[in-house]
Design brief:
This protein has 199 residues and is mostly helical. The protein is built from 7 helices and no strands. It folds into 2 domains: 13-41 and 61-98; 100-199, no CATH class. It comes from Chamaesiphon minutus (strain ATCC 27169 / PCC 6605).
């Protein structure tokens, strides 16, 4: 008997523009994390000097000033890439099609199709990364220019809470990235993941 070859799930086409923005966000985010952890180690948020710190391999910059240089250089790439991406999804109406929608929530609530449910989770995860990244920018800007942006810094009540919120965007974004990779593979196999990186 002839067995039909197994069909791989359809892969949505990605424009090169989106692939470049996606790559730039990944690279700059990891520079922000490594240099941020270097800054953290100078005076740990948890426990102050001599408090809980990170191993050298997880940091970037070698010392406080080196970490700050990397952080403040990469923040422009990181923030502007997200801004350009925001403008792009707005102008192309991509936000209507590509992000979590009522259909996804319906699929999770009443849907019986396991593939559709996995796909809904995949969309929830990657949509959820965006507010976390925006929070890292808002809290970072409040620390960068606390005098000029005192209204923004004031939203975080005090400096310790501001530092803690900014720091927490590291583990939260790493968790989101991990789930994003896993759900991407579960929803569309390796071909979906590859479609975001291959030219
Ligand atoms: C445009 C975006 C960002 C700006 C403007 C910004 C700005 C800052 C500033 C001003 C500091 C304190 C520097 C110092 O005390 O010398 C800092 C620390 C830090 N940043 Fe960012 N940052 C941004 C994005 C990020 C991102 C995306 C991450 C990682 C997800 C991150 C992780 C950290 C960490 C871990 C610290 C050390 C926290 C502490 O010890 O207080 N930052 N950032």
């Amino acid at each position: 008997m002839n067995k039909k070859p197994k069909k791989s799930p359809p892969v949505p086409p990605q424009t090169n523009f989106v692939k470049i923005l996606h790559g730039l966000i990944i690279i700059s985010l990891f520079i922000m994390i490594g240099s941020g952890l270097q800054i953290y180690n100078a005076t740990p948020v948890f426990g102050g000097k001599g408090g809980w710190s990170f191993p050298k391999w997880a940091t970037l910059g070698g010392w406080l000033a080196g970490g700050r240089n990397w952080h403040f250089a990469a923040m422009w790439v990181f923030a502007f890439t997200l801004l350009i991406y925001g403008i792009y999804i707005f102008l192309t109406k991509r936000w209507k099609r590509k992000f979590v929608s009522e259909q996804d929530l319906k699929a999770l609530k009443v849907g019986q199709n396991p593939k559709r449910r996995t796909y809904a989770w995949h969309r929830i995860i990657y949509t959820g990364i965006i507010p976390v990244l925006l929070l890292s920018i808002a809290s970072g800007l409040a620390m960068y220019k606390p005098a000029q942006l005192h209204w923004l810094a004031g939203l975080f009540i005090n400096w310790q809470i501001l530092r803690t919120v900014h720091f927490l965007t590291v583990p939260i974004s790493l968790l989101f990235i991990l789930f994003h990779v896993v759900m991407g593979i579960r929803a569309g196999g390796l071909s979906l993941t590859r479609s975001m990186f291959q030219p």
